Amino acid sequence: MSSAQAFDASAPCRVSAERRNSLEAIFLHSSFRASSTWVWSRFRRMDDVLAYHEIFHEILATLTRANCAELTARTWHSKHPDGAPYFEEFEPLIQSEGGVAHFTPAMAFENFVPQGGFTGSLTSDERTYVRMLIDHAQNLARTPVLADTRSLGRVIAIKADFPGLHIVLYRNLFQQWCSYSEQLAHHNPYFMETIKRTIESSPEDRFFKLLRQIFPLGRPSLTDANYFYCFVLLHLYLYAQVAEAADMVIDVNALECDRSYRRAVEGQIVDKSGVNIDFADVKKSIAFSFTPLGSVESVSTRLSAMVDDILAHAPSAAGRAFVQKALGELLDEYERYMFYAGALANYAAPDGMLAQEFDNEWQQLNREMQSVLQSTSWRVTAPLRGVKNWLRA
Q1: Helix%, strand%, coil% for the chain, nearest 5
Q2: How far is CA 90 from CA 79, 85, 142, 149, 260, in A?
Q3: pLDDT tens for residues 218-254?
Q4: Beta pairing partners, 148
Q5: For residues 331 and 177, is the Cβ–Cβ distance under 8 A?
Q6: Angle CA 275–281–284, to nearest 5
Q7: Looking at the structure, do residues 233 and 271 belong to the same domain, yes or no?
Q8: Is there a single domain that holds both residue 355 and residue 222?
Q9: SS3 category, 144
Q10: Predicted pLDDT at 17
Q11: What is the pLDDT averaged over residues 304-328?
Q12: Which domain covers residue 263, as residue numbers?
């Protein structure tokens, strides 16, 4: 399905007032490896929709028509459904010198959380860029669907400028983590690196500061549990902050195992947007984690104080409910995983580290954290005071 036609970024908008006053766009907000590409692909196959993939992907800054055609699900260990090149819908918007019109590299991670925090505003560049994508689709008399895995931090900001239908996609966090781990095992560190890049993207954010101090990240490693804990807590924090802004939250695991839920989701999308979506071919995908984490009780304990902090600062009841659901399902899935694959996971750990050895390392980390907590510097200890009771327990 090609939308290729001449595009002039400076041309005046030709969108009719009637169409502008209808539903502007559908936004799919997601994290990485959370089935967002599959969901996007279900919209993409519809003739009356123009579905953009990864609208804030950093590659858009240098994308050319030549390499646009080369970027497909078959060029890497994607586990994505076959289809046209990922960025085919952007082709008419690619400038002669390369790069999608109005896109800037800062949109990928630097602007992940707006200036002013989660309730801040988009930059003027972001507004111009998103407006262009919507107008281009509407000029073709098609419903724009804008999907991305770097938009969770700016859901509120995007919705403020572009009301539309905002859908947040959620996948069981342990299954999602296993997919990150599998990608790294296939020598693709990109998804692990996004954890660090996201946390570092907002240096003034209080919770991100706390994560950097409690769980410092080095190079991505299959056995570095700090990556797991940062991954989980980052996602819980994002969900807590933006849950209330979502018009819909789609649980992709429930789509696969609950037919009545799937039909209800499809019906809501039709009612809210007029788009007659079909998720009937949803399939479950399972990956593997090499990270030695110990027992489910140990994981729960190590998360508890930080989760309490997330809940205490969540801006809405919807955010708190989302966190509690996601955490409970993470722990349940990890318990099932350890029952069926725990022995294999310990055996397969690349550096031979067993769970008990990891527990010993954690005790050493606890002692180091205690020394930090005893610092007399208020600037250092202020964000850590909420953790002190946990470590003393």
Answers
A1: 55, 5, 40
A2: 22, 10, 14, 17, 35
A3: 999 998 999 999 999 999 999 999 999 999 999 999 9
A4: 29
A5: no
A6: 120
A7: no
A8: yes
A9: strand
A10: 40
A11: 98
A12: 1-171+247-288
